[in-house]
């Protein structure tokens, strides 16, 4: 039945809902829920277990954490159950738990990284506004978010 669901539709997410990866260590079997990564339009990155979705890509994530990054550091803040409106989803993908541990990032406290992360956001916004201004003035490109721009 799964092979009949086209990959380009929301049916491709069926296998990711409430699914577990099973592995064995000696004689004990363990279930680990698959972690999904969701990147939102505002740049936030959320990780959690996909519990439900609909045809509009509205998502329900459980055991959700928000991650922020700066250089080789990251911090996590627990968010619990998260309902995400589909129009805010930029990217959705499964986190490879085997490779996640190999990424050379150091976890730090949320409060330590939050101020630095906020400063990065402000700097990026200023840089993007400058680029948009130059492109508009010198090349005639429409500013991002202008009239008729859906996003």
Automatic annotation (TrEMBL):
The name this protein goes by in its record: Uncharacterized protein
Species lineage: Eukaryota, Fungi, Dikarya, Basidiomycota, Agaricomycotina
């Amino acid at each position: 039945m799964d092979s009949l669901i086209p990959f380009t539709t929301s049916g491709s997410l069926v296998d990711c809902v409430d699914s577990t990866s099973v592995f064995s260590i000696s004689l004990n079997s363990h279930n680990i829920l698959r972690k999904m990564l969701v990147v939102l339009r505002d740049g936030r990155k959320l990780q959690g277990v996909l519990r439900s979705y609909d045809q509009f890509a509205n998502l329900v994530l459980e055991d959700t954490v928000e991650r922020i990054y700066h250089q080789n550091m990251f911090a996590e803040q627990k968010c619990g159950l998260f309902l995400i409106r589909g129009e805010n989803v930029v990217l959705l993908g499964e986190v490879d738990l085997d490779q996640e541990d190999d990424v050379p990032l150091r976890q730090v406290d949320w409060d330590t990284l939050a101020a630095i992360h906020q400063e990065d956001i402000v700097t990026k916004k200023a840089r993007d506004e400058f680029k948009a201004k130059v492109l508009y003035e010198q090349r005639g490109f429409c500013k991002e978010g202008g009239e008729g721009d859906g996003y």
